[in-house]
Fold Fatty acid ABC transporter ATP-binding/permease protein.
Amino acid sequence: MRPGAPNIGSPDAKAKSFTPSLKRLLRRLAPERGYVAVIVGLAIVSVVLNTLGPYILGKATNLVFDGVMGQLLGRNLPPGATKEQAIEFARQHGDNVQADMLGAMNVTPGVGVDFSAVGRVLALVLVLYLGAAVFGWLQAYLLNFVINRTVKRLRGAIEDKIHRLPLRYFDSTPRGDLLSRVTNDVDNIAQTLQQTMSQLLTSLFTVLGILIMMFWISPLLAVIALLTVPAALIVTTQIAKRSKPHFVNQWKYTGQVNAQVEEAYTGHEVVTAFGRNREVAAEFDRRNEELFQASFRAQFISGLIMPAIMFLGNINFVLVALVGGLRVATGNLSLGEVQAFIQYSRQFSQPLTQIGAMANLLQSGVASAERIFEILDAEEQSPDAVMADTRPVDRGRVEFEAVSFRYEPQTPVIERLSLLAEPGHVVAIVGPTGAGKTTLVNLLMRFYELDAGAITIDGVDITEMTRDSLRSRIGMVLQDTWLFKGTIRENISYGNPLATEAEILAAARAAYVDRFVHALPEGYDTVIDEEGTGVSAGEKQLITIARAFLAKPSILVLDEATSSVDTRTESLVQHATAALRRDRTSFVIAHRLSTIRDADLIVVMEHGRIVEHGDHERLLAERGAYYRLYNAQFAAAAAEA
């Protein structure tokens, strides 16, 4: 990690509050507002059809109950008796409850169940439920389409953002944690939206529809049913408030575990060589235990919501059944209406229970969204100038004019450094570790912006060029090789995707890749992975050098490019780079001073300043910093020999 770089993606960063983050996540659906309107319409139709079902089914119950009562009354009354006579007969015998019930019923003494009418009602209910299922399926299909497109755009936004972030961000963010955000957290957001949006829409509209039907049937029972709603909301809110920090920790520790695993796997050889396997395993166990504890607490606490709401729903059911039975007994409601109301009361608690069950998913998804928003909100690199100069670099004259830079405000890294590299010259930069050599190249590439001074190429300030224009004309070969999974030919052509086969082969021959590639099973079509498995460290470096050759840069940067190459190959590469450097400005960062004896200018840096400059012979004659470095290196080599 670069000293002083802001730890934008650190696990200890403060999480935003739930509601603003949820609103921001839902705003990601804005481009799909047309589809969302259709989805809402489908959800409303589906809920309306589902909601009408119990009420109409209550009609069938009334038909059956009325028919059964009609048959029973027909046994005690003379043929042709009317409903009014049955009611009067009941009152004369002191059975006022039965009389009240008969008053609310559509019963005819002696007439049984009208099964044809019952069949018509049941057929209507079947049609309603089938329609509700079809509209619900269409809603789920469109919603799944919308959510996947939204997540696709979110991934694209993250990818675009990453390309706009400065190198400082990546220096300050653990790679594993960043990968966890881009993969695990985005997948968790997708899963959360898919599992909650459909249920949430259906549940909200179902609650509204059921409320309307309950008040339509009996305002008194509706008020009783609503008594448990405030209690359910309070329970859900309080439990969700206590579970949110644990969900935040869950995804924070997930990122930490991924970072630790990625670091341990990448450096597995070093870990094994130094016998630190137990320490690494112990560190993994510690972080894994933290993740387990956070996940357990988050799921356990949020899991209390559903049982609590179900308990309140059962209390509600008992109250509705008791009062509803009394209302039937007094003739204020029919049996079918009470049956429908009880079914509505159960359905009313069901969406509340679903919303409670979704609370833990929402907490988890919003916690992941907050981590994604931290990336999207990270400070970007300064934009290119509006009228950025995109002229090609014709000569490659590079000048550093009083350049100053620091990672931390109080710790200067480079202080008022001036340097001129003439076209076609080789400028070697040497010095102890931490002198600022690589930082100088990073400033030339605009990986970091200057604090003061200017860098010009052919008289044009690099800040007046687009970054793409600047970097397309600078070829870099780093000490740490980078290859991607693909053929050797594809890895070389990465320097110029439009290169012809002849140009690729010419670059390979110039970098002496051709010397070893024919010994491989498939030649240039040999597939290597990201780690370069199948070729040696020196051969990997040669491939990256061939890649730089193919790019035909105007300015060449070699940062310890021959450090992984054996002595014989180093000699060959020196001859190849000599041809490549012709008519090009080259910066060579080197610790092995034998590789830069022929440089046109050798710059010795210490503590961010140039303390000496000149050619090899002149600097040795001055017996200064370069002389001490040179003698120390070759004296050590002689002693080893």
The radius of gyration is 39 Å. Residues 115-164 form the longest helix (50 residues). The chain is about 65% helix and 10% strand.
